[in-house]
Amino acid sequence: MAIGRGAIPFGHDDASRFLPWMLAFMVYLAALAVAGLFILADVTDKFDRGIENTLTIQIPVSESVLSDDRKVAAVLARLRRTLGIERADALGRSEVSDLLRPWLGATAASDQLPLPRVIDVTVDRSKGFRAQNVRDALEPIVPGIVIDDHGAWLGDFLRAVRGAEMMAIAVVFLICLITVIMVIFTTRTGLGLHRETIEIMHFVGARDSYVARQFALRFSLMGLKGALIGIALAVPSLLLLSVIAKNSGIGLIPDFDLTTVAWISIGATVPASSLIAMMTARATVIKSLTQMV
Amino acid sequence: MAIGRGAIPFGHDDASRFLPWMLAFMVYLAALAVAGLFILADVTDKFDRGIENTLTIQIPVSESVLSDDRKVAAVLARLRRTLGIERADALGRSEVSDLLRPWLGATAASDQLPLPRVIDVTVDRSKGFRAQNVRDALEPIVPGIVIDDHGAWLGDFLRAVRGAEMMAIAVVFLICLITVIMVIFTTRTGLGLHRETIEIMHFVGARDSYVARQFALRFSLMGLKGALIGIALAVPSLLLLSVIAKNSGIGLIPDFDLTTVAWISIGATVPASSLIAMMTARATVIKSLTQMV
Amino acid sequence: MTDVVSFENVGLRYGLGPEVLRDISLNLEAGSFHFLIGASGAGKSSLLRLMYLAQRPSRGLISLFGRDISTVPRRELPALRRRIGVVFQNFRLLPQLSAFDNVALPLRVVGVKQSEIRRHVEELLTWVGLRDHLDAKPATLSGGQQQRVAIARAVISRPKILFADEPTGNVDNQIAARILHLFDELNKLGTTIVIATHNEALIRKTRRPVLHLEDGVVRSAAGDEDAGTPGDDKPAARLATENGRPA
Amino acid sequence: MTDVVSFENVGLRYGLGPEVLRDISLNLEAGSFHFLIGASGAGKSSLLRLMYLAQRPSRGLISLFGRDISTVPRRELPALRRRIGVVFQNFRLLPQLSAFDNVALPLRVVGVKQSEIRRHVEELLTWVGLRDHLDAKPATLSGGQQQRVAIARAVISRPKILFADEPTGNVDNQIAARILHLFDELNKLGTTIVIATHNEALIRKTRRPVLHLEDGVVRSAAGDEDAGTPGDDKPAARLATENGRPA
Ligand SMILES: Nc1ncnc2c1ncn2[C@@H]1O[C@H](COP(=O)(O)OP(=O)(O)OP(=O)(O)O)[C@@H](O)[C@H]1O
Ligand SMILES: Nc1ncnc2c1ncn2[C@@H]1O[C@H](COP(=O)(O)OP(=O)(O)OP(=O)(O)O)[C@@H](O)[C@H]1O
Ligand SMILES: [Mg+2]
Ligand SMILES: [Mg+2]
Fold it and tell me: Is the predicted ipTM greater than 0.85, yes or no?
């Protein structure tokens, strides 16, 4: 049966003029949330296996080189027995003098200068590593030992970023939920407004599926329209944000440029929302129709 | 005239059952955005006048102490002529050795050890300070000079936070705008749905103000209802977030506890939204009525 | 002798369509009682709509109570409308209100006391045979019951003019007679009445003057040539020909 | 001889109200033509609503085309309804559709070809005098014009049964006669017809059997004692008394 001229135009009630805009807003939010998700994932990726899981231990210079060697061996042995330590290696003298060169200039390379020993440690914080435990364990072995936990502040930072990621995911889910609720409300408003039309359709012998098809078509079109408006607003917003981010040189968000996958995901909000609109409308209509004459 | 029994009940159309929930959602978002704004402001406050505006310059150790002194004087003189430098002071030998103690142990205090000179600089980034300019200016004077810009990454971080603050403000404005649009749409839908009622009211001699009052009352009640639902959902969400933030120990957001002012601002979304709803509805109705019979 | 309704060369077209009414000139005296007849689609409802201010004419002059309605500012319309009662052809009851509340509406908007409203509305609805349906919503009333509610709403505020569009299309002859009696009573109290109808029995029975609408103009009463019921000194409509001269 | 409509001890009450219809037993033979009369509020529309499946009875058995309607599954209702035409008392035209599209609706839902729809609908609307109003929306039609569109919609698909509720309340006698002629033609083609009306002139003129609804039961034809028009072999309704025995 033809859907164009032959179909029953349900007319343009205000409720349905309203829905595309609400859907546009939802898609806009969803697109931004998805973009945010990808950017945040990028940030965590970058830092995750980086400094967050490293620790530097310095053993202060003492009178004899031999004593220092013993201390290093003892600390290494202790570290390797500690929970959450993945790797612990003493740096060679040249590496340490490289680290100190900016401080000591050329003299750092001189054999005369006593250099502190430095141990580079990789930890796995998920296995219950606590910097304080290491400190407590090593202090008795080498008094005055310095433990520099790079991860401490970075960990906080990354936890905040991950929290934000969770929020973004929650927002996307919330948006889907709200969209479904909105479509249900609007469909039922539509059914209410068009109750008379539907009853007459029934009286002249139209099947439920015929009526439901009209609604589903209408709502998927509305969903599509809303989604296109939303995405049409979201893309420039994202590009603008990206330009702003680059010009202000925010180093923490270095790859504001979204990947192809990200753009595809953002674009996927369009078919997603019209699909959600269509299926919700269809289900709502079929359910409601069976309660009518 | 009595508003209760004597008033004209416009009935509960679906469009108006829908609005309070949309308003609830808006108020929820607004409350979260306002809370975010206060938290972010707190973060910037904390870091703003801190490390962000400091710079450390080290002059590598050379052969003679005198040459070092000369270099320091030259660098200080140059710095004081540089745009955006507020203060530049050379640290004393004891301060430098304090800084180096963790690296060099007891030997740092020894007069034998040549120590690099360190200059502590306070900058004002708003006056166009660029770390690279300083580097370019000092490199000819002291080759191999090390400039450690603490603000570099923190500045990025704070810029990101400030960006987020701007976003939150934009979100609040956007929400107000969307609320107004939603109320206009719903009012017009309502006027459309109740067109017949309004026409009859006119035929029996009702004044425009009488009709408008009914609508305004109805919409301010809907606004209030929606706002109360929204705030009732927002407050537990915020408390939950605060608990999560505390337990995960995110150091960057130390004062998640919102201040009284913040809570009052959040609470203000309630009267604000019902006021917006009422005034928008009234204006829309008055405007539409004069175009009717 | 005052004219409460006066038309001078009034024409009406909807949008870009043909003129539905062309060159209507007539005067209805205070206290007169007319039937308005004409074929379906002749323009009876349109003419009444002009009279009760639901429609502006395309041309010509309409006066109500001696006032040119094109000069009445919007804020004075409510006061004017309170003196006019209308029975719409399709009733136009408010679906969300009970029969009682529908009839009470004209009293409510002018601020009549609740107790007085109750007494008047109940009395009138009882009179039209709806005592048992005071709280019924229009959708639960039969066609004839709805029509009677519509009539009650039109007359409850004792209007100076009453326009009724096909007020007996859904009731039997017995109730039709009762409704006509109600209109007669109102008319005796001074209300000017115009009834558009297809019910020829009704017209024959009452022998009231008839306005015949045909081809967009009002012709001298058809089937009742002696408009104004001779020997009866009831005020009558002075009809005008197309070029405005009294016939 | 088959009964297309058959009621056995049917009762109807709305909600918790009194029984509007009580103990209705009747059989309408295929090809019969009845008027249904009764005071306003007697239950004529309610009885018709039961017949065209807009309402389920509170008790009793209703059969259409020999099928007990309480056993018809929902998915078979459309097929059943396509054999029934209804003229509603309040027309119930779809306001967003033109006169043409309103009348075309019953043909559209069964998938009739567009060209055929156009031919049939235009012909029928011309016949009822609405040739110039094919594209008019119901709101821009006069009361009588709307009523004619409603009638056209009910008959366009040549239904096996036609129920018309007060189909001439808004038209003049001339058009009423034309409509009745249309119904007669349909009846000759085998359509069973039931018309609820207050129009006594119509009933007198056609001398068709009359079902009189009073106090919730159908009584033997009033004012036309000889139900079934003697000497005419038109099928008639066999009425049953309250306790179910044929009168
Ligand atoms: N709102 C409108 N827009 C366009 N045309 C209209 C409108 N209202 C009425 N008409 C047209 O004006 C003409 C007169 O209509 P009107 O309702 O006045 O007739 P009427 O005499 O009351 O008929 P009836 O006896 O059937 O009620 C009709 O042809 C109708 O189609
Ligand atoms: N949906 C409903 N709910 C409750 N009561 C109803 C409903 N429909 C009708 N009634 C009541 O049932 C009774 C019969 O109504 P019905 O419409 O069948 O009368 P009718 O004979 O068609 O009258 P009319 O000639 O005035 O159209 C009336 O008293 C009416 O108030
Ligand atoms: Mg009319
Ligand atoms: Mg009825």
Answer: no
